[in-house]
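User: Hey, quick favor. My workstation is busy. Could you predict this chain's structure for me?
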Amino acid sequence: MASITIRNLEDDTKTRLRKRAAERGRSMEEEARLILAEAVAREAAPARGLGTALHELFKPFGGEELELPPREPMREPPRFNPGDGDGRA
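Assistant: No problem, here it is.
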């Protein structure tokens, strides 16, 4: 396993880390490892798409099944003949 040294850590940051570790029953070193691992894992997680985010947001409200209208045959595409005037063939 690798180790790192963090230089120029502000006293307030070290104090807060020490308190946080004590509240959780951990050493400062273990708390720092967990904080770093969580931050890196969060950064590596793939971003959700908009559709997924919306789905998750509204999922608790249930859904509604919509009746789809029957399909009709496609109409003839327009023809554009030069000099025709009305665009019909």
